[in-house]
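Reviewers asked in the last cycle whether our approach scales beyond single polypeptides. To address this, we selected a multi-component target totalling 586 residues and predicted its structure end to end. The input consisted of the following lines:
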Amino acid sequence: MTIVTEKINLTPELKKEAEKLMLRYPDKTAALIPVLHLVQGKFGFVSVELEEQVAELMGLSRTRVHGVLTFYTMFNRKPVGKYLVQVCTNISCTLNGAEETLKKVKQKLGIGVGETTTDNKFTLMTVECLGSCGTAPVMQINDDYYENLTEQKIDEIFDKLN
Amino acid sequence: MAEIKILTKNIDVPDQDRIDVYMCGGGYEAARKVLNEYMPEAVIEEVKKSGLRGRGGAGFPAGMKWSFVPKESKLPKYLCCNADEGEPGTFKDRLLMEKDPHLLVEGIIITCFAIGIHTAFIYIRGEYVKEAEILQRAVDEAYQKGFLGNVIFGKNFNLDVIVHRGAGAYICGEETGLIESLEGKRGEPRLKPPFPAIVGAFQGPTVVNNVETLCNIPHIMEKGGEWYGAIGPERNTGTRLFAVSGHVNRPGIFELTLDVTARELIYDYAGGISGGRKLKAVVPGGSSSPCLRADEIDVQMSFDALMKVGSMAGSGAVIVMDETVCIPKIALRSLEFYAHESCGQCTPCREGVPWMMKIARRIVNGEGEKGDVDLMLEICENILGRTLCPLGDAAAMPTKGYLTKFREEFEEHIRMKKCKVQSA
Ligand SMILES: Cc1cc2nc3c(=O)[nH]c(=O)nc-3n(C[C@H](O)[C@H](O)[C@H](O)COP(=O)(O)O)c2cc1C
Ligand code: SF4
Ligand code: FES
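The resulting structure, written as C-alpha cells, was:
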C-alpha cells in the first residue's frame, strides 16, 4: 500500500488574511497566535510544513513558531477527527460526575482518551476547566459547549453527530 | 448582606448584546459624559473614591493601579482586558461578555480615556469561541456608531479595541504571561519589577484589568465613586459576581455585596447542598484558594475577611463539596491541573508541583507511605514565595489547606490503604 501524503500549502487567500491580521498589532509578530488559529481553522491542524510556511510569512524563526505551537493546548500538530471531543475533568465537573461522563463517552465512541475513531470522525481528549462549572459536567465538541451532561444527553448528542 | 444588581441589572433584557438595546437602557451615556465633561485625572480620582478592587484574583485597587502609569510616555500605552477566565471554578466573565458585551466596551472606553490609552486588547481564552464572536460584533457596532475609532463622541480622542483569542494555557491569565502571549510568544511570565504599568505590552506602559473590574467602571462614572464606595463593607466595596458550583441545588452566578457569608451564599442563594447531604468543604475563591471546612463558613466573602482566615477571595468562584467527597482525590485533581499548567521556568514550581502530585496519587491509590503528609507540607513550604509568578503559590496554598484542614483523612488513606469516604 502506498501512503499518499497530500502536500498542504498556505493558499494565497489565507496569506492575505494572515497579512491583514498582522496589521492589527503594533508589532506584526503579535499576530502569530491568530495566524495559527487561522491555519488550523483551515486544515484542522498545523503540520511541520505549515509551521515552516507561517514562519516564513511572518518573518519569524521556525523555533519561535514551534515554541509557540507546542505551548498552547488548543493547537493540534497532528490531524484530529472531524469532531474533537473534549471532556472537562476539573474539580467542579468531577464533583458532578465527570468520571462517569468520560466513561460514557469512551463507551459511546469505542475509543480511549487521546484516540481517534477509525473513520476519523471523533477524537477524544480530556480538558481542564472550560469556564462552565455552574452547568457541570461539561464537554466541548469543536467550538460548541455541551452542558449539564447526562447519559441520555450524551447518547442524543452523538447520535445526532453520527 | 444585600442583593444589589449593578453588573447584572440588564443581563436578562432580550438582545442586550445589541448596541441599540444597550443604548435604550442608557448605555454609553456614562462614556459620553466622561469624555465631554471630565479631565482624565478626575476619572481616576472617582474610581479611587469608589474603592473598586480588581475582580481577577488579587483584589488590587483599580484606581491605584491606573495611577501608576506614567502620564507622559514615549511609547504607546496599552490596556489589556483579561478575559482569560482560566481559574478553575470561575465562569462569571463569560456571562458578562455573552449577555452584556457593550458594558465591557464602555468600561474600556472610559478606562482608556482616564489613562491616556489609544489601543486596548481584549485577551479572551481560546475556548470561548462564541463569546469572542459576540464581543467582536459589539466592537464592530461601537465603531459604526462612532464610539470607537477616531473622534469618539465628537471629542478629540481616538481608541482601537482588538479582540485577541488565546489558545489554551492557564498561565496566560497571569498578567505578564498574558502580555507575553499577546506579543505572540509562549505565555511565560516575566520577572517583576518592572511592573506592567511601567514596561508592559510592546514595551509600553500597560494596565491589565479583569472583565468584571472594567464592567463596574461605567456604573461608577454614572452614579459616582461615593455611591459605589458606600455599598458593602469598608475597603471591600461594591458587588461581585459569585460563581457557585459543585454540590449545590442551584449552581450559578449571584451578584451580591461582599458582606455575604459563605453560609448565606450556599444555603440562601445556591439552594443548599444537593440531596440534603452535609457540607464538607468550600473553596471560596477559585481553585487556588485554600478551602474552608464546614465549621468555618460564617466568614464574610470579602477580600479582607477571607484573607484573615487564611484563605482568599480570588476570582469569586465558590466550589462546594458535600460529605461524599474524598479530599485527597480533590487535592490530586488540583495538583494534576497545576502540574499541567506550570510553564516550567522555575524549579520549585516545575519540580515541586509534579512531585506533590505523585505523592497525592499514591495516597489516593492506597499506596501512601508514612510521612507523606509531612513531606508534601515540606514541599509546599519550599514553593511558597519562591517562584517567579504566583502559579507556584496557587498550587501550594490550596494543597497546604487540604493537608492541614483534613490531615486525618490523608493519614487514614495511608493507614487503611483505601478511601473510607468513598467505600462507605
Ligand atoms: C496563574 C494565574 C492565573 C490568572 N488567571 C486570571 C484570569 O484568568 N483572569 C483574570 O482576570 N485574572 C487572572 N489572574 C490575575 C491576573 O494576574 C491579574 O492580577 C488580573 O488580571 C488583574 O486584573 P484586576 O486588577 O482587574 O483583578 C491570574 C493570576 C495568576 C497568577
Ligand atoms: S511559578 Fe510556575 S508557572 Fe509561574 S513562572 Fe514559575 S514555573 Fe512558570
Ligand atoms: S470544572 Fe469543568 S467547566 Fe469548570
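Chain A is about 45% helix and 10% strand. We regard this as preliminary and will revisit it once experimental data from Aim 1 are available.
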